[in-house]
Amino acid sequence: MKIAEVRKHTLLELVEMIMTSETSPSELVGLLLDQIRATDDRIRAYVTVSQDAMRQARRMDREVKTGRKGVLSGIPISFKDNFETRGIRTTCGSEILREYVPDRDATVVKRLKSAGVIVLGKLNMHEFAQGGLTPPTRNPWNTECIAGGSSGGSGAAVAVGSALAATGSDTGGSIRGPSSFCGVVGLKPTYGRVSRHGVFPASWSLDQVGPIVRRVEDAAVMLAQMAGRDAMDPTTTDLPVPDYVRAINGPFNGLRLGVPANHFFEGRDRRVSKVVREAIHTLESLGCKTVEFEFPHVEEIMAARQAIEMCEATAYHMHWLATSASKYKPDVRSSLEQGLFVPAVYYIQALRYRGKVFPEIVRLFKKFDVIITPTMPVVATRTGEELKDDTGMYCTGSFNLLGLPALSMPCGFVDGLPVGMQIVGNAFDETTVLKTGLAYERASKFYLREPLAPNSFLTQRSRN
Amino acid sequence: MTFSQFLNKLLAWRNRLKVRSAGKDNAENVLGVLLDRERIKTITPPLKHSLEQMRILEGIDLEKEVEPTTFLFAVGRRASRQ
Questions:
Q1: Which chain B residues are Cβ-neighbours of A359 within 8 angstroms?
Q2: Please, which pLDDT band fits residue A237 given cuts at 50, 70 and 90?
Q3: How far apart are CA A397 and CA A390, in angstroms?
Q4: Average model confidence (pLDDT) for chain A?
Q5: pTM for the full model?
Q6: Pairwise CA distance, residues A424 & A247, whole Å
Q7: CA of residue A120 relative to chain centroid, distance
Q8: Of B66, B67, B79, the CB nearest to A427
Q9: Where on the phi/psi map is residue A412: left (φ > 0), alpha (ψ -120 to 50), or beta?
Q10: Cα A415 from chain centroid?
Q11: Which pairs from A26-30 meet CB under 8 Å and 24+ separation?
Q12: What ipTM was predicted for this assembly?
C-alpha cells in the first residue's frame, strides 16, 4: 500500500482494514516514517519522532490478531509537543524545556493509548503556544507560507500525510487557525469536554484540547476517545460523552445556520469571505436555512479574552521569566513581559464579563443551531510576515472566552491556499457541529484535494 | 511617615536589593522579574496597544452581583440544561 491510498480512508476504515489483515499497524507506521523522511526536511512538522513507534506497532500487529484492542487499534497518532508523553521528550517548542522527558502521560494521551493508538511522535508548535510566529514549520500547500499556530506542526503533518491524526490545543484559535491554513479539519471542543491534565497551559481558563485530522468523522472518533470527566482536571464535566460517530452519521435534516452580519465576514480579504459564503450556499442546497444576525459585544469579548490570556500566561511563566528570560524567543518573551503590566482589575472585570455575556450568547442558539463564519480572515501569509494585530484570532478568539465548540474545515481556495469555514455550536453540542461539517464534507469532498504538488510530497514507495 | 510612604520605601529597597544582587544596574524589579530600560523600551509600544484595546473593559456596566467566572465548568453545566 502507498501513503496516498492510506489517506483515502477514515481512521475507522483503517482499523477495519487492520482487523481484516488488509494492512497492519507496522505497515502504517512504516509508511508514515517514510513520509516523515520524505517531507520533514521541508515541512519541519516534527520535533521528535518516537524511536519506539515501530516496536509498539509490531507488538500491536501480534495483539490485533487475537481481536480488537480498542476503537483505534493500531492507528499511529502524533501529539502537539505540549502534551506530556511518558518517556518521550516534551519541549513545548522552547529552549527552556529542551531536555524535558515526562514520566507520565497527559490524560488525553493515556486515553488514546487505551483506545489502541501508537504514539508516532511530537509536533512543532509556537513556543509555549505564545507569540506570533510559527517557527519553523512550513505550509504544505506553499512552503513559502506559514502553517499557522500554535498547533502548526499538527496542521502541517496531517496535511502532508506525515501524520494520520494529531492533537492540538486552542486558546484563541490554535487548533482552528492552522487547520484553516493547512486545509485540514480541527475541532476545539466545549471548555470542560476534554481534560487538559498533562497539557502545558497557555491560559488555564481559555485552553481546550482537541483533534486535528483530515476528515470530520475522524474528528468525531478522536473526540469520543479524548472526552469525559477526569478527576485530574476539575474543570471537566461529568455530562455523558455521546457516540459521536453514530450520532453524526444519521440523516442530515436541514439546520438553521446563524450567519453574523457584522465583524466575521468583514475581514482583511474579501475573497476569503466569498468562499465561505459559497460554502453556506452549499449547505443551503442541502436543506439548511440561513438566519442572519448581529453578533453582539465582539469588541468587549475580544478585550476580555486578551486580558485573561495575558494575565494567566504571565502568571504561569513567572518563575522562568525571573530565572531564564533570555531563553525565550523574543516575541514570546515580549508578550509574557507585557502581562506583568496588565492591571488585576482588568483581569477580574474580564472574568466577571464572561459570566455576564455567556448566557446572552447561548440564548442566540434559540434562533439557529450553529454559527458559520470564516475561520481565519485571510489565507496563510508568507513566512516572516506576522499576522497583523488581532488577525490570528479575529474570527476564533470569541469562542474561547465563551467556551463554545468550534470546528474548522476546508471549504475552498484563494491563491492556491486553503480557506477554512468555522462551524460553532452551543455548549456541549459538538454533535450538531460535527453533523453539519460531515454533511458539507460529503457534498464538497475537499479532503480529496492534496497539497499543491502531491507527487513531490506523497512517497511513491509501496510496502508489501 | 504615612503607611503608604513606608510601603513605597520598602518596595524601593526591595527593588534595589534584587537589582543589585543580580548585578544589573538600570533595571526595574517588576513583580520579581528584572526588566532593564532596553526591555521596557521594547515592550512599551505593544503593551500600550494592548492596554488601549482593554480599556473597553472599564466602560462595561456590570451589576454588583456579577461575580468572576474563572472556569466555565459551572456555566457549561447550566447551559447544558437549557
A1: 75, 78-79
A2: very high
A3: 9
A4: 94
A5: 0.94
A6: 17
A7: 17
A8: B79
A9: left
A10: 23
A11: A26/A54, A26/A57, A26/A58, A26/A60, A26/A61, A27/A1, A27/A463, A27/A464, A28/A57, A28/A74, A28/A75, A28/A76, A28/A164, A29/A53, A29/A54, A29/A56, A29/A57, A29/A76, A29/A118, A29/A120, A30/A54, A30/A57, A30/A463
A12: 0.86
Rounded mean pLDDT of chain B?
A: 83
Contacts of A384 (CB under 8 A, 6+ apart): none
Q: What is the pLDDT of residue A74?
A: 97
**Residues of A with catalytic roles:** 80, 150, 174
Q: Which pLDDT belongs to residue A135?
A: 67
The residue whose grid cell reads 470569541 is A398
Amino acid at A192: G
The model's confidence at residue B80, banded by pLDDT at 50, 70 and 90, is very low
Q: How far is CA A24 from the centre of its chain?
A: 27
Q: What is the mean pLDDT of residues A256-275?
A: 95
SS3 A90: coil
Q: How far is CA B77 from each of CA A215, A230, A239, A463, rounded to the nearest angstrom?
A: 29, 15, 8, 49
Compute the distance between CA of residue A205 and CA of residue A313 in angstroms, rounded to an integer: 10
Asked if A205 lies within 8 A of B58 by C-beta distance, the reply is no
Which three three-digit cell numbers place residue A420? 477554512
CB contact under 8 A, A337 and B33: yes
- Give the cell for residue A218: 475522524
- Cis omega (within 30 of 0) for bond into A454: no
> What pLDDT shows up at residue A93?
95
Looking at the partner chain, which of B51, B53, B69 has a beta carbon nearest the beta carbon of A351? B69
DSSP state of A247: H
